[in-house]
Amino acid sequence: MTGYGKGESENEKFKVTTFIRSVNGKVLDISLRSNMNLIGIEPNLKKRIKDYLKRGNVNVVVEIKPKTTDYALDTTRLRESIKTLKSLTKELDLHVSDDAILNIVWRYAERLEEELDPELEKIVEASLDEALMDLVKSRKEEGENLKRDIEQRLSKIQMLFEKILETKDKVYENIKSKVLEKAQGLNLSDRDPLVLNEITFLLSKMDIEEEITRFKSHISKAWNLINSDEEVGKKLDFILQEMHREINTLGNKLPDLSEYVVEIKTEIDRLKQQAANVE
Questions:
Q1: What's this model's pTM, rounded to 2 decimal places?
Q2: Which has the closest alpha carbon to 79: 59, 52, 105?
Q3: Which of 166, 164, 168 is nearest to 206 (CA)?
Q4: Structure confidence at residue 1 (pLDDT)
Q5: pLDDT of amino acid 112
Q6: Contact 54, 231 (CB under 8 A)
């Protein structure tokens, strides 16, 4: 599911702000970026994320702001960069102001730490945890909206399926009437073995009782799943595939019901798109 979260934490030396955005995805894919080197604690941060999330493309940005200039900047590198750039502009006969030179070299003068000190690591984790809780809250709100939409579509499928159950016997009667009408044209009795065999053959080819039984079972499973505490997304997608298979077979056997079959398949396809959004 999509969602957004933000968390902040700080101590005397640093302020850490973490931003998390998640979009739909069948698996959990985590991208972690920061303005400082987090390689040493990245596995731990990803583990914390996995404790909260199971699916989705998750982008995490950790912004670390030192509260002291000495820590934030490598002043030696800053001086050397300014000297080098001034020398280069003079050599190339370029007219660049001191302010422009400072803006250029400033971004390259941030101090790179090979290892985070334990205090900074703690507030990075605290900021991440707060952002994750905010994200989960956001995703929960979307999840409730998704559930309502899924329930509405399942209800519509059930209504259309009831129409099929109400109409199928009329279709069978129409088939019988057409065979009997044809038999009358050939001067055959409605009790003639040829006529009875033809009716039996046609009705057996169009028998959809197995598909009806399985489709009912799939609808029941879908309702039970979305009202359970289980992970819904992947299981619902599988149930919807089975529903699509059964209704497709049913439509092939009884083309006269295609009006309802097409609408049901459309709703199933829409539900499959929603299932990809659900964890």
A1: 0.60
A2: 105
A3: 168
A4: 67
A5: 47
A6: yes
d(CA 69, CA 56): 38
Cα 57 to Cα 27, 29, 54, 193: the distances in Å are 8, 5, 10, 65
CA distance readout (Å), 110 to 51, 71, 73, 256: 33, 8, 4, 72
Residue 19, beta-bridge partner list: 6, 61
The CA-atom distances, in angstroms, between 79 and each of 65, 105, 111 are: 21, 9, 13
Q: Please give the C-alpha separations between residue 13 and each of 8, 64, 67, 113, 129, in angstroms, as whole numbers.
A: 14, 10, 5, 14, 20
10-residue mean pLDDT series, the chain (279 residues): 90 92 85 87 93 89 81 69 85 83 68 65 94 91 86 95 90 73 64 67 77 95 88 87 95 90 95 79
Distances (CA, A) of 23 to 100, 126, 203, 233, 237: 39, 23, 49, 14, 18
Q: In what order do the strands lie in the sheet with 14-23?
A: 3-10, 14-23, 56-66, 28-34
Distances, alpha carbon 99 to alpha carbons 104, 114, 144, 241, in Å: 9, 30, 52, 63
**What local confidence, expressed as pLDDT, does residue 157 receive?**
96
Residues sharing a CB contact under 8 Å with residue 53, sequence separation 6 or more, in sequence order: 22, 28, 132, 135, 136, 279
Q: Which pLDDT score is estimated for 23?
A: 86
Supply the pLDDT for residue 77. Answer: 73
